[in-house]
Amino acid sequence: MKIIALAAVAAGLAVAGGASAATNLITNGSFEAAGTTGTAAITTPWTYTEVDGTDTSHPATVIAYNSTAGYPDGAFGEPIPTAPQAVGDPDAPGKFAAYFVADDATETLSQSIFLNPGFYSIGFSAYVPQNGFNNSGDATFTGTVAGKTLVTFDVHNSTTVIPPQTWETWTGTLHVTTAGNYDTDFIYHSGTAPAADVVIDNVFVVAGGVPEPASWALMIMGFGAAGAMLRRRQSLASAA
Question: Which of 102, 101, 99, 106 is nearest to 50 (CA)?
Fold first, then answer.
């Protein structure tokens, strides 16, 4: 029984220790690295790709919060409020966010990170500007962090998922069992012009996430099995 107790304590300390020394494993997850706005402000290691239809002049860009500037420095004159601090994200939202706005296009923003086995907290935030929501063309958006898809929504039909002019944050726990590279991808696919648009911020991956219920159940089962083996050995030793 001592082995079970020690294992449980060690697991708890590992989780607590990871949370207390949280570091965002996503580089430039708040899009602050360039310190400015514009299409060139999406800096490495983010990789941006665009497959254009009729619109080739509005690639994803970095915009300033609360700005009435036009594209590419703002959301076509609509001030975007600063994203709230996302629970679990060690980085502050800062002054900037990433903005997907091209019409009739598919845009992808991605970053790959190496993860060792363990538990991780993951998440990101998104916002739908009202002027984009009012456009006749629709758009779909998928947010995948470290290989785990957190949300997929269609802007015009997703008011219960992300109402216009409302920041929403999606978080989760990722259990990595095999060390390797894991991709974070944000995929925006817009319809005909003018199309709906999406703003994102607060992208994070932090080691030491709290295991989900299913993972806790597996851990407890493992501790129980270890305890049963210990008791069996003690019984055999007594019988001998």
Answer: 106
Answer yes or no: are the C-beta atoms of 174 and 210 closer than 8 Å. Answer: no
Instruction: Give the amino acid at 15.
Output: V
> What is the band of 81 on the pLDDT scale with cuts at 50, 70, 90?
very high
Instruction: Give CA separation, 158 vs 31, 57, 115, 205, in Å.
Output: 25, 27, 32, 26
Q: What is the DSSP string of 79-142?
A: PPPPPPPPTT--S--TTEEEEE--SSEEEEEEEEEEE-SEEEEEEEEEE--HHHHTSSB-EEEE
CATH class name, domain 23-207: mainly beta
3-class secondary-structure state, position 37: coil
> pLDDT digit string (tens) for 122-151?
999 999 999 999 999 999 999 999 999 999
C-alpha 28 chain-centroid distance: 12
Domain boundaries along the sequence of the chain: 1-21+212-240, 23-207
Tokens 């975007």 belong to which residue? Answer: 80
**Contact yes or no for 59/107 (Cβ under 8 A):** yes
CB within 8 Å of 165: residues ≥ 6 apart: 127, 128, 129, 130
